[in-house]
Each structure stands twice: as C-alpha cells, then as structure tokens.
Amino acid sequence: MRKKQIAIYFFAVLPFIMVSLVYQKLPDLVPMQWQAGKGVRYDEKWQLFILAVLCFGMGVFMPLLAKIDPRRKNYEKFYPVYENFIILMEIFMSLMMAIIISESFYPGRIPVGRVVCGGVGLLFVFFGNLMPKVKSNFFTGVKTPWALSSETVWNKTQRLGGKLFFFGGILMVIGALFVPIVFMPYVVGGLLGVIVLLPTVMSYVWYQKESCR
After folding, report:
1. Domain extent for 2
2. Residue 182: what pLDDT?
C-alpha cells in the first residue's frame, strides 16, 4: 500500500479516534459553530460523530469517485494531485475537530474565528498550487460547462482558478491576522465571490472565442 493511501485512511479515521478517546469526559453540550459578533452555538456532543462520519466518507468515497467519473482515464494523469486534495481536506477537518474538543474543555483558549479563517486561507493556498495540474473531470477543479467542453478552456480555467485560490488564500491569512474578526465573514465572502465568479465568466469568454474561430 502506498504512503498516500495510508495517509488517506489514517486521516479518514483520525476524527473518530479523537472523539472516542475523550467522549466520556466531554460536557454534554459542545461548541459547534462560532458566529462573528453573535457568540457560540452549542449542540449535543454526539453530533461530533457527524463530523467524523463526513471525514471518513471523504476518505472512502472520493477515491471511488475517481473510478466512476466518465473521464476516469484522465485521473491517471493527475491522481497523486487528487490524493493531495483528499488529504488536505481530511487534515482540515481533523483540525476543526481538534479545535472543538479543545474549546469544549477550555473555552476561549483559542481565537477560533482567526484560526479557522487562517486555516481556510492556507487550504486555499495549497489548492491554488494543485489546481493547474488537474485534468478535465467531473468532480475536481473549476467545473464550468464551458471548461468541460474544451480541454484548452479547461486548462486556462484551472490556471486562473489556481492563481485566485492562491492569492485569495494569502489575503485570507493576512485578514485572519489583522482584520477585526467581526469583518472577516465579509472578507471571506467577498474573496469567495471573486474566486468563484471570475473563472466562471472567463471560461465562458474563452469558450466563445474558441467557438468563433
């Protein structure tokens, strides 16, 4: 078994292990959502297993998606990159679980809003580096109808998406460090809007130019 496969399986079950080790000691209600300026929402501790199931499902089903994708042959060209996507998402979800457990025992110890925003930013930076290597498929990357219809448009769209994810992620990290936390949802929302909208519009423009030749 390859090292990346082992890593995917390990991080898939890590949140289960984390919750199981401390479950009996956890308070009945644990923090599950932090809202800027609105406090913390608490839920029953058994709901932590929902997050654990989501992480486990990602580790199990995302490799299967590569096998049922109509363009599964393209995965042979970037499958190590696809595995990196899976591992990064699992690590991020494990980090979220660790934050929840820590805040359950020691409320207020971690500046959760800043840590989460910074973590999302770093995740985007890594994604930005990976996206230009992603080949045409139906499950990963910026999947607009126009990108899926043309390999040239696909490659341009992923390169643009990669740059936006990378620099958007850096801005999120900077914001997490210096912007008042109450404004961070607007910063993140605005950056996400640009990251999603601009590649969508440009893929359409590139496809129209290609079709008119």
Report:
1. 1-110
2. 83
